[in-house]
What we know:
homotetramer, alpha/beta, six-stranded parallel β-sheet
Amino acid sequence: MPQTPVHSAIVTAEGHLVDSQILKSIxxxxxxxxxxxxxxxxxxxRTNDDFSTLTLKITANDEASLAxxxxxxxxxxxxxxGEENALIRAVxxxxxxxxxxYSTTNQRTQVRVNGHWTDxxxxxxxxxxxITDAGAVCRKLRELRVGDRVVCGLEGLRITPEFRDxxxxxxxxxxxxxxxxxxxxxxxxxxxxxxxxTRTRGEKIVFVAGPAVIHTGGVQxxxxxxxxxxxNVLLAGNALAxxxxxxxxxxxxxxxxxxxxxxxxxxxxxxxxAINAINRAGSIRKAVESGAVANGIMAExxxxxxxxxxxxxxxxxxxxxxxxxxxxxxxxxYSAALASAGMVIILSTMLHGIGVGNMLPAWVPVVCxxxxxxxxxxxxxxxxxxxxxxxxxxxxxxxxxxxxLS
Amino acid sequence: MPQTPVHSAIVTAEGHLVDSQILKSIxxxxxxxxxxxxxxxxxxxRTNDDFSTLTLKITANDEASLAxxxxxxxxxxxxxxGEENALIRAVxxxxxxxxxxYSTTNQRTQVRVNGHWTDxxxxxxxxxxxITDAGAVCRKLRELRVGDRVVCGLEGLRITPEFRDxxxxxxxxxxxxxxxxxxxxxxxxxxxxxxxxTRTRGEKIVFVAGPAVIHTGGVQxxxxxxxxxxxNVLLAGNALAxxxxxxxxxxxxxxxxxxxxxxxxxxxxxxxxAINAINRAGSIRKAVESGAVANGIMAExxxxxxxxxxxxxxxxxxxxxxxxxxxxxxxxxYSAALASAGMVIILSTMLHGIGVGNMLPAWVPVVCxxxxxxxxxxxxxxxxxxxxxxxxxxxxxxxxxxxxLS
Amino acid sequence: MPQTPVHSAIVTAEGHLVDSQILKSIxxxxxxxxxxxxxxxxxxxRTNDDFSTLTLKITANDEASLAxxxxxxxxxxxxxxGEENALIRAVxxxxxxxxxxYSTTNQRTQVRVNGHWTDxxxxxxxxxxxITDAGAVCRKLRELRVGDRVVCGLEGLRITPEFRDxxxxxxxxxxxxxxxxxxxxxxxxxxxxxxxxTRTRGEKIVFVAGPAVIHTGGVQxxxxxxxxxxxNVLLAGNALAxxxxxxxxxxxxxxxxxxxxxxxxxxxxxxxxAINAINRAGSIRKAVESGAVANGIMAExxxxxxxxxxxxxxxxxxxxxxxxxxxxxxxxxYSAALASAGMVIILSTMLHGIGVGNMLPAWVPVVCxxxxxxxxxxxxxxxxxxxxxxxxxxxxxxxxxxxxLS
Amino acid sequence: MPQTPVHSAIVTAEGHLVDSQILKSIxxxxxxxxxxxxxxxxxxxRTNDDFSTLTLKITANDEASLAxxxxxxxxxxxxxxGEENALIRAVxxxxxxxxxxYSTTNQRTQVRVNGHWTDxxxxxxxxxxxITDAGAVCRKLRELRVGDRVVCGLEGLRITPEFRDxxxxxxxxxxxxxxxxxxxxxxxxxxxxxxxxTRTRGEKIVFVAGPAVIHTGGVQxxxxxxxxxxxNVLLAGNALAxxxxxxxxxxxxxxxxxxxxxxxxxxxxxxxxAINAINRAGSIRKAVESGAVANGIMAExxxxxxxxxxxxxxxxxxxxxxxxxxxxxxxxxYSAALASAGMVIILSTMLHGIGVGNMLPAWVPVVCxxxxxxxxxxxxxxxxxxxxxxxxxxxxxxxxxxxxLS
Lengths: 406, 406, 406, 406
């Protein structure tokens, strides 16, 4: 393998490199990008508990390709030997980063400033890293202000990919393939266990829910989850609240009588009347407190003081006054509500599910339940090993979940 | 509307023409085919119970178009005024019909022979009508023998489309659209009621089931349905039996431990060992009677004397000796088992479901359950108003069904 | 609404009642709601061009049921005999309607004020009707202001359901079932013809497009549509613009090289850099005019002065400065852009597609193209006969469309 | 299998262990099954061309678990150190194997007989290995005869998993995830290249096709592929032939006029008339040679002497006399036709696609094209790295393929 010293670099990585497919991914990237590699040293962890360490020499045709290649290996935990500080540039325009800003992944990240490695706070994907007096922190582009010190380039960065821990819990073993041909009852048992463990650890269980929860008959079961303390935060949109209140006021969901399974007279107008009723009351909370809305998911949230955030979208009717019309504010509210989440369960909503996935660090376990395998695949693909997908009927899933939690 | 007497015809129809969309369909066909119509007389039933009657003059550009147009209206119950006997030709080659043979629909059909209208027996779609001494009967092309007298052309035929009866039962009201956003528990209640009614009437409940019944954890629930007398016939393929026996012998389905939800060591070989075990015993019945297979769907069928027919396919492993390798024989066995079916429930199998749909007359109610909406749509499209589609998880559906039947 | 002590009412309707399934729907509703009907007079149009007229007596168990039943028949064009003026109430709270406000459908509507029937302007579904000095107009609940005069109850309203016109155009004949087993090339030919006709009539062709247009390789073809004048308005979200600019700057879409079909080094950061580049420029228009973005869909829109509206959503990265963050403003902008639409084509976006469907009157033809049949079904279900669904690959569809339009 | 009293064993493996995820899979299995491992030696290939070698000590709680664990590692190429001959037992019952027979995978396999390692011929999954005078060969259970010498247990077996060769060809780089959001034109380019290469090497290109090829307008394009010599074998079912002949005779497919996209009068009878026409002629070949069937896929196959095999199924109409009614014979004919396949392309048929997948060794590249992602996922999951899945419209795909091949 002929090569010049100019176009090669030495990178190192350590961790459960084999188990987590990281080693394979590193090799793949090098070859895919037209580079070459030579393993200078590889110590495979002798047992399941030991880390492996790798020293790899990579070669590319020119300087620019080599730089891009090194950049591309960073998400896998590789870092150039010979430690340098991160390159920091000041923001020159509100809401914009320098052109070569480092855009984050959702993996644990450290940055080297003044010779010291610092953890990056509020880890999420697609953010810039800002160095403040209090340390390093992820910021969205729109939050940048002139003078903010932003990490640029690829030096002085360490990523720690989430290792798939074989023995950590039942949970991680579920994360295989997306299939509708599964015994859901077995999966529900594991999810129930993870929920109990999360509660025991004092961490928040966050639900992200679409209106199919109502349509498929899940109101009763979801209400029980709230009463039993298994819902700490509810992230949703206008439609969930509108149809929940519609069901409470009229017994219908999108005009369909959920007991009889058939449309009722004038039912197509029910959701607009439900929205009007809440807006007349002034808010969901006031409508519940006044007795106008006596039961349902939103009423139980109000009574149990469960935080709920309703994000607006282009397809909203109304919207209900509680719905946040500005999506930037909605994102900030979602993000704040997810701050100490120990577990996230997404029920039948690709829109809000992807929104939440964008905000979460890689180490929070996520369960995604949808009858459409394409939605489950899309949500599971984004994340890392922590996402479990379940292709099943959401109403029947909630029924099972309540049974197995009680 | 200029027209010549030569290219027009008068047809009549009667029944619930409006409710069942038949009137609309008749008009649509005439216009689509480039013809014209003039309503000569239309008596709309005054109440929900009364029939409507229609006399319609249709016009086309030439004789051939007019003949094709009349032919095309026959499935909607239209018949030319001026009653003629059916044209009958003798078969001249075994297994083949005359070129202009009348190919049946699955609707109730009468044929006029020697001035008398006779009901056609064993109604099914895509068959020829043979006039025998015992009357008129549907025969598949392959069953035709030289000398058989086959109905040809379009004269002397009366079709009675199945009218959608609004008040007949809860069942017919479910037959609307295919959607995954439904409260399945409400639909299960109706299906359970129809099953009880069918049993009370002494008619057979026929299940058509694919291997997803096993994969999704349905064995226990389906076994209970058998024990409680709700399964009279089971139509399936090699895979259902193979995975059922695999689950009985090894606790796995396609190598996945259904309790733990994870693959077990060597599990990919389990289904071949299950097949080998049955074939060594000589048959499923012998394997059950010898105690080699102690439980599961096939064992319960043997014990409860439920008729089962396993049809072979190109993707079969083995096959199990009970599996019928010749698909013509398998079709005949399926067809015989369906002879007095009062209700058919198709669980997660497009292949066998379509096979069964081809054999059924239009008046047998069919329930189709699948998590894939495309399968439900495809099966529901073929039939008439009697097919109810349910997009849901089959394992959880069976759980619900057992609960609501007990 | 005159009626006898036995709770019955007379309603009348006229139009292509049979062809458009309206008659059937009327009967269905009456029976479903537990009422009875008696046809007092029915004149079936003699030919395809003639209207039918119906006089129907309906009966219910009590006054309230009868009122609901009459309400429920209004969308089918039924109106109580004996014409009364509409009931009008004043708004007492900004953004809220009186409790019994009439919530609109998307069908042509007339309202009777001071003895005169007036057309309702800006027809859309889920709105209130406000009587102003300039006439009657649809208003969203949030647009209502104290003192506005809103139509309440069900008196004095006439709906004219869109009749499915068999001979109007090729277009209406496509609107049958949703299926992936179709010859798309034949459908594209009809869509191309409808586009040409729309342009000839001087009406706007509006595209609603999701980012899959970019991922599936549609940029080149969509750009040609713009250059050739077949795109008058583009309604989309942040992602379409971000990935279009990413493709223009880096040749990738979501980091995938569209020529090679494989991910490129650092590609996951490209969309953030694209967003940053636009935001630094100040807007898409400025980025194009400065030459920073040289080609792609957004660049062609800027050059051809095609109006584009980007609606924000909870899952947006960035967002781009052009993206409208407030969904109420975005809805108003969408709605204004749709004002004189002659045809709408929705490409791979359920979110924006449903948003647009909510705003459109029933008579604007809509084409919905998506590879996911569930999306096509959902969009086609909402509308009336004017929606054509096509289950196919969007990139290849656009390629075909360009070929057939040139 | 030497081991210490604490139930441990030493196994070795070599190959591209990291790239192909084999190392990870080995570790996963050990831990999943409750065992432990200790890496005694691991030599990572220094460059992309070098093999890696592994010596691993595995430990389990008892003898039986250890044996199952070793068995479970065999498919990954692990073999116990200390070479023993394979255990061979004689068949005692026609059509059945000894209970502990070794059931094959589709990977390259060697067996040790009399101290010599021999390649196993006719490799396929789910077979028994029979030792004959001519060597070792895969046999289906049903082919076993009394006295046949069958490999049992797990000793004396070597599996060589297919290594994913990064640089072998463009083909292997496509085999990533199943998604409908792809630029199909780029994938078609690669498939076309692989087809040309296969032809150049003198290997067979085998198509497996369902009737959607006809429905989606693919007849013209598929016919061109045949004429241009890109189809060596066609594996299909009754429906493909029936609808192809229907299209040739009547211009319809399932009664739909493919030019107009609408149903034609009496069209539902066309496919039965097509079947009757062939059966009267005596065979597809005779119908083509007599001129009764002038064009279409089957006619081009006859003219170009392309081998075709039609396998029967429970849902067949007719069937056509060419259709093989016995599925065991059909499997044997399919299997023989696949004998020297260099490439297999599956178009819109899960049934026949799975059948073919069961028969193929792991090293034959397979392309699976279907608009339903569930079908693509199911077919791609079965195989190894050689399966490429494409979610797209089959008719438009064939159009593109013809363009890029010419």
